[in-house]
Amino acid sequence: MSEFPACPSCNENMTYPDGNHLVCPMCGHEWSTEQTTVPETVPQYRDAHGTPLEDGDTVTLIKDLRVKGSSTVLKMGTRISNIRLVEGDHDVDCRVDGQKFLLKSCFMKKA
Ligand SMILES: [Zn+2]
Predict the structure, then answer these.
(1) 40 Cα: distance to centroid of ligand 1 (angstroms)
(2) What pLDDT, on the 0 to 100 scale, is given for residue 14?
(3) What is the torsional sign of CA 27, 30, 31, 33?
(4) Rounded to the nearest whole angstrom, what is the distance from the C-alpha of residue 47 to the centroid of ligand 1?
């Protein structure tokens, strides 16, 4: 078994390293070893319409949101600036009227 990945061109397992490259002696294919590293999975954050969201974006709520554990309701159309994206079920960390909330990106759209 080769410790190197199979040739992406002909699928032979004869790959050997040559500097920063991997070479397949069977078909002559050369490719960068950097392509063989698994890309870091960056979680994708999207609003209700599928528009990608980024840290610092401004969004508006597309429905009234009752905040869990309180009587606060964030009204549809509320504008929230400078959101911060976090991992988890509630993926948008933000402040509304000075209060900190964790909301779901599927209930907002990018402003
Ligand atoms: Zn090959």
Answers:
(1) 26
(2) 94
(3) positive
(4) 43
Predicted confidence (pLDDT) per residue in 56-93, tens digit: 999 999 999 998 788 889 999 999 999 999 998 899 99
Closest CA to 36 of 53, 56, 17, 62: 17
Are the beta carbons of 11 and 33 closer than 8 angstroms? no
Domain extents in the chain: 1-39, 59-110
Cα(10) to centroid(ligand 1), Å: 4
**15 C-alpha to ligand 1 centroid (Å):** 8
Burial class (CB in 10 A: 0-12, 13-18, 19+), 88: exposed
Half-sphere exposure of 79 (CA within 13 A, CB side): 3
CATH superfamily, domain at 59-110: SH3 Domains (2.30.30.40)
Ligand 1 centroid–CA 77 distance in Å is 57
Do the bridges between strand 108-110 and strand 59-61 make them parallel or antiparallel, or are there none, so unpaired?
Answer: antiparallel
